[in-house]
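agent: user wants the structure for Ammonium transporter AmtB-like domain-containing protein from Rotaria sordida. delegating to structure tool.
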Amino acid sequence: MVDIDDIKEYAKGALKQYMFPVGLIVFQCIFIILYGVHADYGLRKVEVTNQTEGVSHNTPPPVGDVEFYYSFFQDVHVMMFIGFGFLMTFLRRYSFSSVSFNFLIAAFVVEWAILVHGYIFTWNSITRTFPVNVKTLLQADFVCASVLISFGAVLGKTNPAQLVVLALIEVVIQVWNEYIGIEIFCVYDAGESIYVHVFGAYFGLAASYALQRRQTVESEKESSSYASDIFSMIGTLFLFCFWPSFNAGIAYGDGRLRAIVNTYVSISASVILTFTISALVGRGKKEIIHIQNATLA
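agent: tool returned. relaying tokens verbatim.
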């Protein structure tokens, strides 16, 4: 005789076990359909220009210009997958989770962010499409950075399924927040300090507060080890090296030059000051957690 309770328990266990991979497959199928129906290559159009007019180096580049954006896109891409991935290994009990979950969430967010950004920023109501070019990929990486910053606040408290849900929600809110800031309030943020860093930090804190079940100030799970600190420093060094590209990614002309030079000089000074303050506060002993994070401020 078939026991109904056993069937219910088996179905519940199977649902719990296979819900995450099935959900990812469903999302991928949805993405494929949306890309196939509404996405279009942002190919450069042949434009006839007046050769007698001089072209200033401060003229905005053609949208989607591979030569102009791709090198910076590469740098920012490395920051997302390697820099943030290894930076999150500072917790010894979640080192593997941080790298692997970062890999998954970053790839998922890039796909989702391209769609959301296209529908909100570059939607063409006549052709009912939006362009996908190198600049679009770069902007998707910026959205990804915001999500990964929030990921650092909930590290160890969430499973992959919860991270995917948070990413789905945060990408939509982040892109709309940037759209309102740029299109309505005319706030241009070349280094993405407001739309990426501040937004990601506050969203992560809000998500962490919503997920906490008890008032815990300190936990044993927050401890680090020698190996986890070393791997985290690798992430810090990657982020340090490519941070000028992040700040200058969408800038051009004199603005791009200033972004690169100012970022490089200021972040170098930040390293010196961090070591100095850490030694003073620690009475001669430098704290690795200060170096991992404050050097990037």
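agent: one observation worth passing along. The beta strands are 39-41, 130-132.
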